[in-house]
């Protein structure tokens, strides 16, 4: 019989999405422009994506019917403020209807105010490092006050700010791709700017809604030191991860997001073995990642700041492997809870098969989406995972399924650099 760990009271149990990846036709964003620029070399544009801008009710209906109690979704800055200083009352009302719709279905909404994309006008100013950028972001957050006014308990200011800084560093260095292992060096100016923007946003949210729990989410790469590489690993990890975790001190919670691991040798990151099982994003299959990520975050911040797994999942065309991956990951979460970590929720990535920053090929979704009709179909993994919510229990067992050897995966073409789900 499978051992289980009971959910703590109020535990968040749900799935996550990002506006640009599911809504479709986000035409005023920087990513829309990039997708249609031949020089950017993007494999395919998002176009209609999952058409969730119009079909969000179907998405929420399915999640509620499956047994989930929470839904993380994003507000697109480029829709709310398509032109600098012009705020769309219609778009603000749209996102408020989404909040109300979630509440009506028994789903607690977690609202993300920035998930990678910015308005084109903001990018044209120079982005996060432009003069006044922090104030412009805080002004946008302030205008989102009606969206999160009533019934919203959790707000995320910025998703994976460390990846924003990493991408900025890669752009400044002229890198067209990522290294075989590890990440480019983050841009220090961007790091300072996004941390300042987060702190300004936290202050703004609290000024408007003192009862809201506000935080941000960090991409955790699970850096594992090989013999003799402990110092190298700490030095490598700090600018890419730890400074962003430490910037969450004083927040109401922090989001932990992890998918795989990165091994570090004395001379730097090393690729996974050639025979390692890989996912459709070519990342090593490693469901134990989330446990390491939770424990590392707790080691840095202590017990004062609650942890929420805001993204965790696998890109695969084999849904049985998805169940295996989640079984291993949830075993890690259960073990961490039993060891006393203050974990307050688990939200899978992703609710839907969606646009993964350049390609629809990597399928992370619990729910399949027909690209022609947009029909939604819950996968067996969604039924299983939602059912755990009804049982209010996490599976507790081995952190990895038995070794099945290397498993070839189809080449999905040019994929997004890790780790941007």
UniProtKB/TrEMBL annotation:
Phylogenetic classification of the source organism: Bacteria, Bacillati, Actinomycetota, Actinomycetes, Kitasatosporales
Biased composition (Pro residues): 409-421
SUPFAM superfamilies per record: (Trans)glycosidases (SSF51445)
Region (Disordered): 393-421
Alphabetical list of Pfam families matching this protein: Glyco_hydro_1
Keywords, sorted A to Z: Glycosidase, Hydrolase
GO molecular function, one term: hydrolase activity, acting on glycosyl bonds
Domain of life: Bacteria
Stated family: Belongs to the glycosyl hydrolase 1 family.
UniProt name for this protein: Family 1 glycosylhydrolase
Alphabetical list of PANTHER family matching this protein: GALACTOLIPID GALACTOSYLTRANSFERASE SFR2, CHLOROPLASTIC (PTHR10353:SF209), GLYCOSYL HYDROLASE (PTHR10353)
């Amino acid at each position: 019989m499978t051992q289980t760990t009971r959910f703590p009271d109020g535990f968040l149990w749900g799935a996550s999405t990002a506006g640009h990846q599911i809504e479709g036709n986000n035409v005023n964003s920087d990513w829309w422009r990039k997708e249609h620029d031949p020089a950017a070399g993007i494999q395919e544009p998002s176009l209609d994506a999952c058409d969730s801008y119009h079909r969000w009710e179907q998405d929420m209906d399915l999640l509620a019917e499956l047994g989930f109690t929470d839904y993380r979704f994003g507000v697109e800055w480029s829709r709310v403020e398509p032109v600098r200083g012009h705020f769309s009352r219609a778009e603000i009302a749209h996102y408020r209807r989404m909040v109300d719709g979630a509440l009506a279905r028994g789903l607690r909404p977690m609202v993300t105010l920035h998930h990678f994309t910015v308005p084109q006008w903001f990018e044209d100013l120079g982005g996060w490092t432009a003069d006044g950028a922090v104030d412009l972001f805080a002004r946008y957050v302030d205008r989102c006050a009606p969206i999160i006014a009533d019934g919203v308990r959790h707000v995320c200011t910025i998703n994976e700010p460390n990846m924003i800084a990493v991408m900025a560093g890669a752009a400044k260095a002229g890198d067209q791709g990522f290294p075989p292992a590890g990440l480019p060096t983050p841009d220090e100016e961007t790091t300072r700017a996004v941390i300042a923007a987060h702190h300004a946003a936290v202050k703004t949210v609290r000024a408007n809604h003192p009862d809201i729990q506000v935080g941000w989410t960090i991409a955790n790469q699970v850096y594992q030191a090989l013999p003799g590489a402990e110092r190298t690993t700490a030095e490598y990890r700090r600018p890419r991860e730890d400074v962003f975790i430490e910037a969450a001190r004083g927040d109401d919670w922090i989001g932990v997001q992890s998918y795989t691991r990165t091994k570090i040798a004395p001379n730097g990151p090393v690729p996974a073995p050639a025979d390692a099982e890989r996912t459709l994003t070519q990342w090593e299959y490693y469901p134990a990642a989330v446990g390491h990520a939770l424990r590392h975050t707790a080691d840095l911040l202590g017990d004062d700041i609650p942890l929420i797994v805001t993204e965790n999942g696998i890109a695969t065309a084999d849904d049985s492997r998805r169940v295996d991956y989640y079984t291993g990951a949830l075993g890690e979460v259960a073990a961490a809870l039993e060891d006393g970590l203050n974990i307050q929720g688990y939200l899978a990535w992703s609710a839907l098969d969606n646009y993964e920053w350049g390609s629809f090929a990597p399928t992370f979704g619990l729910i399949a989406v027909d690209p022609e009709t947009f029909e939604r179909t819950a996968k067996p993994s969604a039924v299983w995972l939602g059912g755990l919510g009804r049982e209010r229990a996490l599976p507790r067992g081995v952190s990895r399924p038995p070794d099945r050897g290397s498993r070839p995966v189809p080449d999905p073409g040019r994929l997004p650099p890790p780790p941007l789900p």
